[in-house]
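hiii, so i know i said id send this last week but things got crazy w the move. better late than never?? heres the sequnce for the chain we talked about at the cafe, plus the structure i predicted for it. fair warning i was half asleep when i ran it
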Amino acid sequence: MSQENQQLYTILVFSENIAGLLNQITAVFTRRQVNIESLNVSASSTPGVHKYTITCYCTLEMVKMLKAQIEKRIDVLQARYFTDDDIFILESSLLKISTPAMLDNPDVCHIIREHGARIVEVNPTYSAIEKTGRTEDILSLFEALNSLGVVRQFARSGRICITRGTREQLDDYLAEREKEKNNGKD
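okay and structure toks below
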């Protein structure tokens, strides 16, 4: 797929907790040769509903097609796509760095403080550092520490996000669906 007109989209998918649905959703991306940049699945604020947070680079036309194909899955309640301006975003990361190198180089602790990271464990061989924030903030910390040669391991979570609206849009959708269902019983 050409890089022209592509941007990062976050797709939120809400579904019941059904085995095999994740495979069906990722197959939608595979068939269209769209790479998933990050994927996070967790329970949502709506009881009994799971939230999939998927990021990918693609065109507007492609993200609309992906959304439509995902919503065709029988167990999917709703899918929506967003740009970064439409949502609040966070990621978490853990870095393992050499404790002796940290103690020998004062720049290491300065970089950790400067990036607002936390030291969560220190032992004689390694120290664990935690950083939560936007992707670019996390990568900036990693690059700064890695340039000093002290990083031994690095892990980053998938994106988590919430929309800028006052309510979860799924709740409005489910309320409307329930209202239609009750009107049909008359």
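btw The first strand starts at residue 7 and ends at 16. thought thatd interest u
miss u guys!!
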